[in-house]
Design a protein that fits this description.
By secondary structure, the protein is mostly helical. The chain has one domain. It is built from four helices and no strands. α1 runs antiparallel to α4 and α3 packs antiparallel against α4. This is Integral membrane protein. Keywords: Membrane, Transmembrane, Transmembrane helix.
């Protein structure tokens, strides 16, 4: 887990959050462009899950493996759950759920970097 990977994922999630926020302000439901943006983020997160698990197995660092993998899995689960909830909710708050989920994913990405480096409290 490197700084560019963690911050790149965080910025991607923030970009999707901004896009969802724009949809929310325009009182639009979850549409195809927003769905595809979340899908791109989800693909990146699945790749991170696999790469992070492999890196954890190969590293000699003192990393809390259970905590690290639980963060990886949580990051993969949040976007699809938010999309399902966002599609089911027909008001503007359906996209609001996506905004909160993407902000959470960005925060988890930065926190994951701290866990990898061993600087978490």
């Amino acid at each position: 887990m490197t700084d560019p990977v963690a911050y790149g994922i965080a910025f991607l999630a923030l970009g999707v959050a901004a896009f969802a926020g724009w949809h929310m302000l325009r009182d639009r439901q979850v549409g195809n462009p927003l769905f595809y943006a979340v899908c791109v983020l989800e693909i990146v997160l699945v790749v991170l899950l696999v790469a992070g698990s492999v890196a954890l197995g190969r590293t000699s660092r003192d990393v809390d493996g259970v905590l690290f993998v639980s963060y990886l899995v949580t990051m993969v689960v949040i976007p699809p759950a938010a999309v399902l909830w966002g599609i089911a909710e027909k008001s503007r708050w359906g996209t609001g759920v996506l905004v909160v989920a993407m902000l959470t994913t960005a925060a988890l990405s930065v926190r994951l970097l701290g866990i990898w480096k061993g600087t978490y409290a």
